Every structure is written in C-alpha cells, then in structure tokens.
C-alpha cells in the first residue's frame, strides 16, 4: 500500500478549519496526521459526527502502517512498539525506537529497589534523554501467588510498562488480572493455549505475544488470534544462541519484517519481540568465561536486534548499577539508529553562557547542528572554562559541510555577533572559530571587525588549547595595531 498524500488525507477531513485541533487549517492537520504528530482522535468533528463515520474509518485505514503499532502500559511511560512503514530507515524514517525491557525473576528479593532504580534512571546524551522502556517479570517460582505479588510490588514503585512472562496460564492470568489496569503485555500465546489467553486479552483489552520457533506456525497463530478478535499482537519467533543460531534468529526477524512491510502480510504485520536474555537459559555459564564475557554475548545479540529495528527486546544484563555499561552501549546505539534522517537536529542560535564568564573570557563559535553544539558545550564545561559560546545558524549542518556549502560563513558569523551582541558581554573582540573553518579567519576579521583565532579541529582539545594560546591582552594589542 502506497503512502497516502496530504491531499488524500485532506479529502477525508470535514474542511471546516475549526482550529479545535490546535491547527489553523484542516490541511495543516492532515499534514501532521501523516507525520504522526496528531491522531485521528484529535479531530473532534470527525470523531463525533455520525455522518463522518465512513470517512473516519477510511482515514484510520489508510493511516495504519503495514506493521501495526501496539501500546504497552498506560500514562506518561506507556510504550508504543512497531508501527513502522519502511524496511530501511533511509527510505523514510523509523518512528518508534526499539523498546528495552529489563528482565526480573519473580523471586528476586530486590525487585522493588531495582525496579525503582530503573524507573528513575536517566542518561542524557547529546541533548536527548535516554531511558529504558519497561520491565519483564518472568515466573521462576512456579507459584501463582508469588508471581502475582511480584507484579503488584513492581507497580507500587514503578510506572514502567510490564510484560508478564509465564507459559502456565494458571499463574499468568491471575497476575494479569491483578494489574490489568496497567495494560501489561501477556507472554505468551502458543498453539496449545491461544484460545484461553486470547479471550482474556479481548475481555481486558490487553496486548498479547504470540510465540513459535516455526514461522508458518507463528503466522497461523497470528491469524487465529486475529480471527478470535485480538487486536494487539506482538510476534516472537524465539531467540536462539549457539553455533549458527545468530544467523537463524536474524533471518527470522528479517523475514517477518519483509512479510509485513514489503509484502503487506496481515498476519506478519505486528511488532516483533527479540529475547537476548534467553542466552542465560541456553548457554552453560559455569565454564572458563568470566561473567562480563557472557554479558557481552547477550549484548551482541541485543545490538544486532536494534540494528535491524526489532521492536522490543528483553535484557537480563544491565539492571544493576554496576552493569550500567551495558545499557550505555545499547542506548547509544539505539539513539543513533533511530534518529530521523529527514531532519537536521538543530540547536537555537544565540549566545550560551558557560560557567561564570568574566570580561576577558573567551568566545567560541560553532554551528547550530545540535550534535556539534552540544559536544562543544560539553567539552568547554569539561575543561572547567568560563566562556561564551556563539551558536551561528548554519541550517543545522555541521561545520565542515556548512563551510563548504556556505551556510557557515564569515558573513553569517559576523551577522550573529551583531544580532546577539556578543562583544557587549566582554571587554575584547576576539573570536575562536573551529579548526575546520580556518579558511574563514581572514574575511571574518574584516566582516566582524574582530581578532580571529583558529581553534582545534576537535573540541575535546579546547582545554589544552586555552591553556597554551589564550592571551587576550596580547591579542587585543595586535588588534589595535592592525586597526591603526
């Protein structure tokens, strides 16, 4: 199914331009619908007018991606998995990042303490906030009361979405009943229990995982659950370790994604679950390898799954504070993969104050490409400098490309110095430009009426550079001599 155009969407709206949705026109609303900035439910007219029922249904149909999205959890931390339109990110973009769920055993004595730690865990990197997305509770006690109690304990200290993992429905369903208002993900529907778990999921409007290591059987299970009336399904073709099994796991995920997105197979058109934590039940860990080496094997599988847009992964390693390295690695990779290739990440142009600048503090210049601006800012702070950072509008393009393309030029820097009055904040007219823009120095001195220093090519060297080269009095004397 081809992606609808804004005009196709606009034709199904009521064209009243009522502005109740927060947009000035229905065309603007239709464009934002296509970009998933709003939902059909945000249009009160089309939702409330019975005469609009057919158009509403058609609108929802054409806007539903070939891989349907599934919501797990409720509230601010609810998690949307799936909902992708393309096989490869560069074809459009990925909309929903791989959700990371951390695994707990139901007899873990520290379950509340660690759940709270993971809920509150925030990692800030390059302007983004990185967090885990949910908790998987796995039954090892084989005790219905213990499993239910563990689920309740998690919800008392955490608002993270929960996946309840137990193949014994006599244990799984009572726990799900206990926390059903939290919209947990049920793991799992199999060829033996699909009807019972499916009916429970329908009655309580809960998502459910369908699992089978045989893809044909998994597709049959998906079709059966849909026929029963289960709307929210997640697919698990199982994760296997050992010789040859990394390739097998990879192939199964890719085959499911191709079937959903390229072939529009409705039975494959759901989010995909990967389970790197299965490593610990499939591989003997009492050999010569150290603990971190086993954890590394689990993370290799997790990284591979992130790289191919597996929609949800379950991890065992990383939930303890001393294992934060595992989460840092996966969250950093995920941040890169799920950045939108259509958008240059930008920072607002202007003057940023770092520390407590004095009259003779340096002025650094950089572009408004967000990943450059933030990195430079972090390195200035890391060097314990009091400084001003002049961020120039380069249309969100990095230094080297923006210099070549003319977006970061002597003229644009000079204009920024005037617009933001950066020289009024110090008693000198010295600018430090990035090493990659060295060729701008001569013309910039003329256009900005300033003394220009060429800084390091890499901002990590800023601290050393300032110690060796920052001599504001000497530079201003040279500036005055040149003026004469």
Account of the protein in words:
The protein has 484 residues and is α/β, with parallel strands linked by helices. The protein folds into 3 domains: 6-63, 3-methyladenine DNA Glycosylase II, Chain A, domain 3, CATH 1.10.15.40; 69-337, Dihydropteroate synthase-like (TIM Barrel); 350-483, Rossmann fold (3-Layer(aba) Sandwich). 42% of the residues lie in helices and 15% in strands. It is built from 19 helices and 17 strands. The chain has helices at 6-11, 26-34, 44-48, 53-63, 111-120, 144-157, 169-178, 194-204, 215-228, 245-262, 279-282, 291-307, 324-337, 370-382, 399-405, 410-419, 441-448, 462-469, 472-483; strands spanning 69-72, 79-82, 99-105, 123-125, 128-130, 134-138, 162-165, 185-189, 208-211, 233-236, 273-274, 312-315, 350-354, 363-367, 387-392, 430-433, 451-454. The protein has an 8-stranded parallel β-sheet with strand order 10-9-8-7-6-3-12-11, covered by helices on one side. Strands 13-15-14 form a 3-stranded mixed β-sheet, sandwiched between helices. Strand 6, helix 6 and strand 7 (162-165) form a beta-alpha-beta unit. The longest helix has 18 residues, at 245-262. The protein is globular. 40% of the residues are buried. The model has no long low-confidence stretch (mean pLDDT 95).
Key descriptive features of the protein:
19 helices; globular; TIM Barrel; 484 residues; Rossmann fold; 3 domains; 3-stranded mixed beta sheet; alpha/beta; 3-methyladenine DNA Glycosylase II, Chain A, domain 3
């Amino acid at each position: 199914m081809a992606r609808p155009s804004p005009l196709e969407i606009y034709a199904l709206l009521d064209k009243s331009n009522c502005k109740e949705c927060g947009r000035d026109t229905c065309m603007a609303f239709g464009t934002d619908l296509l970009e998933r900035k709003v939902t059909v439910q945000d249009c009160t007219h089309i939702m409330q007018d019975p005469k609009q029922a057919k158009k509403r249904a058609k609108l929802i149909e054409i806007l539903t991606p070939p891989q349907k999205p599934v919501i797990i959890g409720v509230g601010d931390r609810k998690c949307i998995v799936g909902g992708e339109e393309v096989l490869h990110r560069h074809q459009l973009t990925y909309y929903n990042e791989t959700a990371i769920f951390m695994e707990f055993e139901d007899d873990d004595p520290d379950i509340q303490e660690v759940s709270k730690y993971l809920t509150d865990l925030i990692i800030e990197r390059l302007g983004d906030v990185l967090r885990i997305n949910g908790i998987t509770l796995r039954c090892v006690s084989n005790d219905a009361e213990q499993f239910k109690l563990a689920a309740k304990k998690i919800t008392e200290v955490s608002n993270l979405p929960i996946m309840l993992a137990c193949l014994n429905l006599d244990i799984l369903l009572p726990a799900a009943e206990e926390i059903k208002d939290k919209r947990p993900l049920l793991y799992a529907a199999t060829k033996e229990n699909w009807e019972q778990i499916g009916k429970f999921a329908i009655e309580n409007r809960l998502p459910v995982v369908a699992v089978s290591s045989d893809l044909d059987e998994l597709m049959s299970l998906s079709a059966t659950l849909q026929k029963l009336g289960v709307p929210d399904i997640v697919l698990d073709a199982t994760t296997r370790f050992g010789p040859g099994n990394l390739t097998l796991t990879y192939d199964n995920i890719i085959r499911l994604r191709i079937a959903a997105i390229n072939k529009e197979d409705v039975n494959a058109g759901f989010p995909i679950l990967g389970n790197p934590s299965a490593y610990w039940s499939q591989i003997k860990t009492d050999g010569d390898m150290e603990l971190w080496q086993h954890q590394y094997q689990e993370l290799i599988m997790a990284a591979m799954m992130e790289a191919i847009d597996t929609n949800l992964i379950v991890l065992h390693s990383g939930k303890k504070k001393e294992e934060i390295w595992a989460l840092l690695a996966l969250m950093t990779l995920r941040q890169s993969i799920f950045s939108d290739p259509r958008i240059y990440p930008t920072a607002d142009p202007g003057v940023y104050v770092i520390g407590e600048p004095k009259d003779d503090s340096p002025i650094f210049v950089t572009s408004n490409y967000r990943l450059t601006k933030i990195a430079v800012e972090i390195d200035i702070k890391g060097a314990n400098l009091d400084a001003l950072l002049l961020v120039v509008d380069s249309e969100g393009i990095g230094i080297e490309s923006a210099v070549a393309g003319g977006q970061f030029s002597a003229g644009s820097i000079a204009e920024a110095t005037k617009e933001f009055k950066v020289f009024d904040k110090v008693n000198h007219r010295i600018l430090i430009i990035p090493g990659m823009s060295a060729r701008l120095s001569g013309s910039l001195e003329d256009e900005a009426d300033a003394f220009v220093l060429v800084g390091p090519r890499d901002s990590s060297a800023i601290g050393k550079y300032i110690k060796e080269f920052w001599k504001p009095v000497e530079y201003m004397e040279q500036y005055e001599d040149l003026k004469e």
